[in-house]
C-alpha cells in the first residue's frame, strides 16, 4: 500500500504541476477566446463578437484596452463607431484593436479609430470590408491576411508600418489608401499577387511610400508617393532600398506589376520630392532582378539621387512609357524609355 500511496501522490503532484503551468501560460499569453461575448452596444474593450449582427462602440472615448479591444469570430458582422478612439497598451504588444479571426466571413468594420496596439486592425477572415478607418501609433496599422478584402477610404498615421498586405490576401482591392509618417514603409505589398489599389497616398514615411516586396502581378493606379525617406515607390527585397544586388536565393523578385497614372482622372501619378530639407532619394526605384514591370504616366522631380532608377541592364524587360522624370538612371532627359 505504501508504494501505491506514493504512486497516487506522484500522479496528483504532476497533475497539479501541469495545471499550474497551463494557468501560467494562459496568464502570460492571454486568450481572445476567453473574453465575454459582446453586446450589440459595446461600452468597454475586451469582448468577443461571436454571433452575427450589427455592433456599435458606445463607450467614452478613449476606450482603453489592456489586450485586444474587439475580437470577431462570427460571420456576417458589422462593427461601427462614431468618433470613438480605442486605445491599446502599446505598439510593441501582441494586441489588436480589432481582430477579424479566420472563422469570420463577410465582416464590415467602419469608422474605427485604433491607437497604440500591436496591430490597429488585423484581417484574417475572408471577404472583409474596411471603410473609413484610421489607425495611429500602432506597430502596424492594418494587416490583411484574409482573401478578397476591400479597403475603402482608410488612413494610417504614425504607425510603424501603415498597411501590410500579405501573401494569403488574394483578390485584395483598395480605394483611397493613405499612409503618412510611418516610421517604416507606408504601404507594403508583401509577397502578394493580384492586388489592386486605386488612389494611394504615401507621404513622409520613414523608408518607402509604397514597397512591392517580392510581390508580383499587382496594379496601383493614381498614386502619390512623395517625401519619403528612401523611395516613393520601391520594387525589391532589400529593406534599405536599391543597392545593386538581386534578392537572395529563395526570395522572389517583384515581377509583372503595373504602376500607372489615374485611369479615370487622366492625371499622372506623382513621386516628387518637395520636403524641406529634401530627403527622398528616389522617386521610383527598381532593384536588380525585378523585371517585366510597367510604369506609365508617372511624374517625378526633385529626388536627391534619381527620379527613376532601374538597376537591370537595359531595364530587364521593364517598360517605361510616357513618364516624365527630370533625372533617371539610365539617363533619358525628361522621358525614360526602356522598351526592349
Give a written overview of the molecule.
The chain has 1 helix and 33 strands. With 340 residues, the protein is mainly beta. The radius of gyration is 24 Å and the shape is elongated.
Query: What CATH architecture do you see?
Result: 3 Solenoid
The number of E-state strands comes to 33
Say what the CATH topology is: Pectate Lyase C-like
Give the overall silhouette. Answer: elongated
H/I helix tally: 1
Strand content: 35-45%
Radius of gyration: 24 Å
Distance between the termini: 89 Å
Give descriptors for this structure.
elongated, 340 residues, mainly beta, 8% helix, 17-stranded parallel sheet, 13-stranded parallel sheet, Pectate Lyase C-like
Q: In a nutshell, what does this entry contain?
A:
The protein is mostly beta strands. The protein has one helix at 2-29, and strands at 36-37, 41-42, 47-49, 53-57, 63-64, 70-72, 77-80, 85-87, 96-100, 107-110, 113-115, 119-123, 129-131, 134-136, 140-144, 150-157, 161-165, 173-180, 187-190, 196-203, 208-213, 219-221, 224-226, 231-235, 258-260, 269-270, 282-286, 294-296, 298-300, 306-310, 319-321, 324-325, 328-329. The protein is built from one helix and 33 strands.
Q: What does the secondary structure layout of this molecule look like, with pairings?
A:
Elements: H1 2-29, E1 36-37, E2 41-42, E3 47-49, E4 53-57, E5 63-64, E6 70-72, E7 77-80, E8 85-87, E9 96-100, E10 107-110, E11 113-115, E12 119-123, E13 129-131, E14 134-136, E15 140-144, E16 150-157, E17 161-165, E18 173-180, E19 187-190, E20 196-203, E21 208-213, E22 219-221, E23 224-226, E24 231-235, E25 258-260, E26 269-270, E27 282-286, E28 294-296, E29 298-300, E30 306-310, E31 319-321, E32 324-325, E33 328-329
Parallel strand pairs: 1-3, 2-4, 3-6, 4-7, 5-8, 6-9, 7-10, 8-11, 9-12, 10-13, 11-14, 12-15, 13-16, 14-16, 15-17, 16-18, 17-19, 18-20, 19-21, 20-22, 20-23, 21-24, 22-25, 24-27, 25-28, 26-29, 27-30, 28-31, 29-32, 30-33
